[in-house]
Write a structure and sequence with these properties.
Layout: H1 2-18, E1 22-24, E2 32-42, E3 45-54, E4 59-69, E5 77-86, E6 91-100, E7 107-117, E8 124-131, E9 135-136
Antiparallel strand pairs: 1-2, 2-3, 3-6, 4-5, 4-7, 7-8, 7-9
């Protein structure tokens, strides 16, 4: 049974990577099993997505930023930020937003932070950061 689950996880991981997603499956994660970040260029806009699958968090906060750079390697600045709080936090949670009127020739990426919090939201239990692939619009 464990072998089938491992094979299924590998197939899912390969599938998600072919979609251009960046995935964090860090061994040290306690509250999250997977966190993703993706960026999709479209006509006149960029679609940004972030997701987090929590196994035992009471509350999950996903913060997503679209960042831009003139050269794609340095001087990243945040163009827009979105955030959403999910209660209960267990299961897979997703945040998707569109960024309108991107600049031609500019590089973009999506920076996602998933934070697990206790039930009264007074304590951060774990935070995981994931950066998408970089695109040139």
């Amino acid at each position: 049974m464990k072998r089938v689950k491992a094979v299924s996880s590998k197939i899912l991981l390969v599938f998600l990577l072919t979609l251009g997603m960046t995935i964090s499956t860090q061994a040290r994660m306690s509250y999250f099993s997977i966190v993703t970040s993706s960026i999709t260029p479209e006509i006149g806009m960029i679609t940004c997505s972030g997701s987090a699958t929590s196994v035992n968090a009471s509350v999950v906060v996903i913060t997503m930023m679209i960042q831009e750079s003139p050269n794609g390697t340095s001087n990243w600045t945040t163009a827009q930020t979105w955030s959403r709080t999910f209660t209960p936090g267990t299961g897979t949670k997703m945040l998707t937003q569109n960024y309108f009127s991107p600049k031609t020739g500019t590089y973009y990426r999506v920076y996602v932070t998933a934070t697990a919090k206790n039930s009264d939201m007074t304590k951060n239990l774990e935070s995981v950061n994931v950066i998408s692939r970089t695109i040139r619009y």
